[in-house]
Write a structure and sequence with these properties.
- It is built from 14 helices and 40 strands.
- It is globular.
- By secondary structure, it is of the alpha+beta class.
- The longest helix is centred in the C-terminal third of the chain and has 18 residues.
Amino acid sequence: MNICRLWITGLVLSLVIPSVSQATTSATSSPDLYGLAKSNVLTSALLPVKDFARQPTLQNAKMSPTGKYLAVAVRNDQNTGDEVNYQLAIFELPGLKVMTRLKFPPNTLPAQIYWVSNKRVVISEAVSGGTLDRPRMTGELIALDYNGKHQRILYSLAKRSGIRAQLNMLAMPRAFPQIAGITKNRDGHIYLSFSLRGSSVSSHNLDARRTELFNVDTVSGEPKKVAEINRGNMRFLMHDDQALFAYGMDDNMMPVAYSRNSRSGNWKQLPVAAVGKVFRPIMVAPDGKHVYAMYSATGGPTQLIETNFNGGQRKILASNTFGSVSNIFWGPRDDLRPFATTFSGVFQNSLPKIDYLNNNKWAQIQKVLAGQFTDLFVDFAGMSRNGSVILVHAYNGRNPGVYALLDTKKMQLKPLFQSEPWINPGKMGPRTPIRFKNREGIELAGYLTLPAGVAAKNLPMVLIPHGGPIGPSDSWTFEPDAAFLASRGYAVLQVNYRGSGGRGINFERSGYRQFGTGIQYDLIDGVHWAINKGYANKDRICVYGGSFGGYSSLMQPILAPKLYKCAIDYAGVSDYMIEFNRSDTRRFRSGRTYFKEAVGNAAEARAISPINMLNRFNVPVLIAHGGEDQRVPIQNAEELRSKLETMHKPFEWLVFSKEGHGFYTEPHRLAFYKKMQVFLKKYLGPGTLPEDQASPTTQ
């Protein structure tokens, strides 16, 4: 059966899969995943640049309800072209025998993977716009069995002759589908929601005025409309195959939520006091009368709460005054209760601090594993429905991660694969969480990554501001840019400035109208903190960032001209008027509202644009950009280059015409890292390395 852009081929996976140990290990007898359980012994060999340019081969692993199969996105860009190829591979556990593989078009990946039954999966397709951008959903949904049989394009926005009848699309709107949930018994059905603009559809789900919900049979493709609400862009919480809650944001970017009468089907809006500043229902409690939700009454760090269906009788299960709940550990579907949480920016013994909500069987299992892998954070990436099998994911700031399968009856742990087997944590420098106060007395968090094998004193340093700026944040996990620069002998500082996610909606919105001021001062204060602590050499500091981080790399030398020796602008904004005049910013209410609140009017956009302040920019800059960048158009780089040339200011240039927002292919990332390495050595000097690496060559 031809399913157009996607097809099933063979049963032998042609891509290289990391080797799998055949030995099982008792989880109570000092297990060792690939010899990496204790990775605190540092060695000084200089790793090749290509090891940091590579992306994980296996990603987004999802285990079937029985624990018998594992669906994984498999990446392959071992080529010299402009394309990256993805497949969906389904393995039989525990031996990782390949059952089938599904090929995707170039630069297209399986973004979401849902097991809708014990043997059937649904995959949503997305196109990558670059490593600095989220994959863009195409609206294509594909369903197939674990062995590749009964394939079906479940939904598509593509205009193909005769395909609408095949997909039963006459019974569903033509709009981007959102996967709203799985049926209670996982009978092969899935819930899809569509946001519509009044009586017509909205192809982009923006400025919508109505949301409809369908139950879709993934084998036959037959849809059945089960609910709708007269508000656009709403999400649903399903329980016992009923839409119990609808929640989202109003036109003023404030949360709204509705509960639904199961008999009448009518929606009732929850009062403002019940919704607060943040309200996202997650799961119905086992008693069937309460719901677990993410909640913040006043905009502070988000809490995990339990509440009744009217938003009353709230009980706080987990909260922290500094950071929001960032991770929730759940029991299996047969015992679906939260048993532990972590919080953004909150650590204990250099690991994310875990707050245990109870000491049930699943909490005890996690504690046993954490006690064995004392330098790794042990997470549960999946569980079988009855909890007999757990997909374990263990990682830290030096280790990209390992996956293993735990038999909870025998308490035996079997290694499956490593996320990036070419990265040896023993050769990575430490990545340490930090906190400091900015000039206004506000406590900020961040991370300091140091070179391996040298004293953490008076080092040349690179500041890496993250993108966004509103919402994203740096995390404690392995970060290839920081690891690469540290491997070359540079300390790396990353700061979660005001506007960053993980601290609550008020902290995020404190970054509004602060793009060129407060956010930049937070970064400058972080650099001074590193200098005062003795980590950084005050005369050897550079700034490198991507997207908004690229904007910051231009603003930092402008605001602190004596602090930096060089800058690297990677897909950064040089002129906010380009963003102000973009059609998608001006066309949709959400874009207009965000720009008005976060940046301001046209005069304010011009006032914070580096392109208008280059008379104060006096350091060499490396400009790197993708020619097909849809997020930050290359016009930003071209205007910057033109004005620097006119002003006779030093710059270097690296553009790949077919790349998007951030270099996506391995050859281009490799070229960028090599260019960066030479640029830093030229303007910042060589990094501080152990004696046997005193004169490293470009590899």
